[in-house]
Every structure is written in C-alpha cells, then in structure tokens.
Specification:
Organism: Haloactinospora alba
GO cellular component, one term: plasma membrane
Number of domains: 1
CATH architecture: Up-down Bundle
CATH superfamily: MFS general substrate transporter like domains
Shape: globular
InterPro entries: MFS_2, MFS_trans_sf
Number of helices: 15
Strand content: under 5%
Number of strands: 2
Pfam families: MFS_2
Radius of gyration: 22 Å
Largest sheet: 2 strands, parallel
Protein name: GPH family glycoside/pentoside/hexuronide:cation symporter
Amino acid sequence: MSRMPEEPPLPRSLHVSYGMGALATSTFTMVPGLVLLYYLTDVLGVPAHTAGLVVFLPKVWDVLITPYAGVLCDRTSSALGPRRPWLLAGVLTLPVTFAAMFLAPPLSGNAAAGYVAVAFVLATTAYTAFQVPHIALPAEITGSRDQRSVLMSWRMLFAGVAILLAGGGAPALARHLGGDVDAYRVMAAALAGVLLVGTLATFLGTRSAPLPERLDPSGSLRAQVAVARRNPRFLRLLVTHALLTTHAGTMLAGSQYLATYIVGDAGAITPLYACLMAPLVATMPLWLRASRRLGKRAALLLTSAVFAAGTLALAATPLFGHPYTAPYSYLCLLVVGVGFAGAQMLPLSMLSDTMALDAAHAGKRRAGMFTGLWTAGETLAMAAGAGLFALVLSVGGFVPSTAASDAAQPDSALLAILLGMSLLPASLTAAGMLVLRRYDPAGDRPAPHRSEEGRQPSGAGTAPPTSG
C-alpha cells in the first residue's frame, strides 16, 4: 500500500497554544507533589500517616472518575468538537480549586487535614476535566506522527518552564514570606494565575485546530476497558509509566525533607529542585535524538537507568560532611533530572502513536478512553509516590511540627528520609524497566506500509495488532 501524502504543517500558533496547557497541568502535578506533604506535616501539624492519606485518597477518587471522564469526552458532540468543552470546564474550575487547597481557615491537625482533603478532591476532578482532552488532542487533530511529535515537544517545553518557575519558585516564595499559613496562601494565589493563563491559552488557541474525524465513539466503559486490556502495548506502556511516575512522586515529596533534614538547610530546596528539573528543558532535544536513533523503548530504558543511578548515589550523601553535603546532593539530583527528562517525554510520545494507530485500525473515537485510563494511572502513581514516602517517614518515627515550632528528628527518621529518596525510587524504576522490556518496539516505529498518517479507511473495523 502506498504511503499517504504528508499533511501540511499545523500553524505555529496552534503549537504554542496547545503547549501552554502544560503550564497548568505541570504546575498542578508538581507543586502539590513537592510541597503538599511538607505543608501538612510541618505547617499545619498533621501527623505523617494522616498527611499521607490526605495526599493519596483524593487521588483514588480521581482514578475512579477519570476513565468515565474519558468515555464522556469521547461521546461529547458539540460545535466545539468533542474535546474543547472539557477544556473550558478546566478553565473555569482548576485555578479556583487549586487555590482552595492552600486557602485553609485557621485549622490544624486532623481538622486541617479534612479541609485539605476535600479541596484536593475538587481540584483533582477539575484537573481531570482539562487533562484528559489535552492529552487526546494530538492524536486527533493531525494524522502525522512528525507533527504529533512537534506538538508534544511544545508541550514538554512549557512543562519544563512550569516546573522550573512554579515548582522551584513556589517553595522559595512560601519560605521568603515566612513559611507560615499566610505565606502558602499567597503562593497558591500566584500559582492559580499560572493555571488560568495556561488553561485559557489552550482553550482559545485550539479553536483553529482541525476537528477530529467523525469516528464512531466506542461503547460502554466496560467494553472500552476490555479493548485496552486486549492491547498489550498500551497495557505495558501504562504500567511502565505508572511505576516511573511513582518514582517521580517519591522524589518530589521527599525533596523538601532532603533539604531540611539531610542537607541541613531548608533553603537548599531551591537549588535541589533546579538541579532536578533544569535538565527537563536542557536535555529534551538529546532524548528526542536518542529516541530517533535507538527507538523509543531503548531510549526509555536508557533514561530509566540514568534516573536509578542518580537516586542510588543519593544514599551516600551522609558520608560527605559539611561543606560537601549540599554540592554532592545537587550533583546526584542533576543526574536524576537528566533521567527524569526522558521519562516525561517518551511515554507520552509513545501513547500518542498508540492512540492514533488504534483509531486508524478500529475506526472508533476512543482516544479519550485511553487518555482517561492513562491519566488515572498517572494520578494514582503520583499520589502513591507521596504516600509511600509518607509511609516510610511514619515507619521511621518522623515527628510532625508546625510553622511555629520545629521538632527534633530521631536518627531513624533521618534514615527513612534517605532511603525514601534513594532505594525506594530506584526499586520502582527497576520494576518499570522489567515491564518495559516486554513492550513491543514495533509500536514506536510503525512500518511505512502501515502508516496511520492517512487514517486508512481499510483499517476501519479491524482490531489493532496485539502481538507482544
């Protein structure tokens, strides 16, 4: 079969506006993962085990509703297309609910934990309304793998900007303002503005995007999940991404503890975070080149190995006394950040190709279903990372405190922090690599005669390849 003609390039304005959505999604993902657990235990005086539940349980709710959101998104019919009404819902709700997480009334302990949990449930629901259609769009607005890669590169560019500015600036701003409840309120208001800019830019800028083909939406949620279960490429990619996201969740949740209790300087969180996240922008072209040269699976295995090496090296931090503790930890997190960059870009690129191939072969619109399951797994994994770190803290006997009083930590708690930042994420990464080794690399590089660029009509009604 001859290759279909290449589509004309999408306008640069569409690339930029789509990418700007990552200002919102990355800010929401990274900032709570970085500061929420610490905010609960060290500002609101919530015990570590309770704080871990607060971080984890709202995400379970999100996992339950996200697949349904994907199905509803697939079935949506409007003049705006199936995705943009949901983007608008995110514009209207995500900034407000995110700010509410840190705009707590004067509460502490379990009462504060209850308030934050409710606000977090609302915020993660709003995030889902925006995230599901945002990930689904590239597979539908263009049939070109190359142009989907361009869209994804812009997404990751703005994700890197958000992670550096919001993730690095949020704890610095809160600390500069005193590190108390009022300081976190100001931080939340500023970041809500970032969320508004990102979501609104994507909604307005994608109005010129080509509407997806009128593919028949799939059937019930149960039927769609059954389809996903019969697609081993998607399942292995989903499990791999979940494990790699869990390792990222542990690192984000533990960074402030590493700075405060291991490095011995709460202000070290800013350079630590910069070392962790700066490679997300700097090394993205290198990982893109590696994926083209080695294939996406091989590149993802390589990036995971780099990540694991950096985390394991953190275990040796106490061996370096002052003034070498901080520089050594910065170096370790710089290595971790190089691996983290590839682990963020490559799975999403592989998912986009998988969804386009599925639509081309099946003739059904179910990108929302795939992204719903993907987002559910990602959400649960990020929360699991923070929850696992909180569990390690609790087992280690970590003593909670408030902004007004710092509690002395036993040696067992310091060891727990160190293990939670080194051995735990390295083990999760190794598990992800084992799953990834069974992923079919043919899914990364579709053969020319099976190109999905033209969404071949002859493929409609046939099942996607499932050979593993």
